[in-house]
Amino acid sequence: MTGAQVKKLVRALADTTCSVILIPDVFTFNILHSRIEEVSGVPVVPLYDTPLSGINRLLKRAEDIVLASLILLLISPVLCCIALAVKFSSPGPIIFRQTRYGMDGKPIKVWKFRSMKVMENDKVVTQATQNDPRVTRVGNFLRRTSLDELPQFINVLTGGMSIVGPRPHAVAHNEQYRQLIEGYMLRHKVKPGITGWAQINGWRGETDTLEKMEKRVEFDLEYIREWSVWF
């Protein structure tokens, strides 16, 4: 294959959650200065890969189970109080289950305390904005404090999410941004998280511009590449 063909193929695979490795020549090795691995004795350079495999994946899962169990035990009185507040503040269910992309782009049901009068889970989902009339009084407080996300510790226990990882976006938003941001789907190579490296670095809340979402994705991919027990 020519260099142009390889580049075109790599770009196409960036819209998937595949792990991609390259068998380069010596010249390419010198240019990339990349981590070198072996597959059946053949030296390869991982292009789209994650350290979250094998023993590392087991360690992260064990960490998630232990921490999520302890946190749910500690916050159970808070969960009950919030559930009552949501129930009596407006008609509708206490928990809102929204379909989002999980690991490998597979759909999962993400749990949240309901914060809106109108629940959207369709092909078109409008992001909540400041002073959004759909948000209830209690919901406004829950969203500002991120308390609406607490039921997602149950998602962690059931294996659909992790405590730390790329935040799961609505399916409609995924379909939109995968067309606009190269490599967007690579953030689904790991389980989505209750919080993520992007949010820790200040990229949380409404993504009302493409640049904001690009920064989120940039930090998400950095987390996936650099993950360790301590990061």
UniProtKB/TrEMBL annotation:
GO MF entries: undecaprenyl-phosphate glucose phosphotransferase activity
Assigned GO CC terms: membrane
GO biological process, one term: colanic acid biosynthetic process
TM regions (residue ranges): 65-86
Record key words, sorted: Membrane, Transferase, Transmembrane, Transmembrane helix
Subcellular location: Membrane
Bilayer topology term: Multi-pass membrane protein
Domain of life: Bacteria
Residue ranges of every copy of the Bacterial sugar transferase domain listed in the record: 60-231
NCBIfam families named among the record's database cross-references: EPS_sugtrans, WcaJ_sugtrans
Homology family: Belongs to the bacterial sugar transferase family.
Protein name, per record: Putative UDP-glucose lipid carrier transferase
Organism: Citrobacter koseri
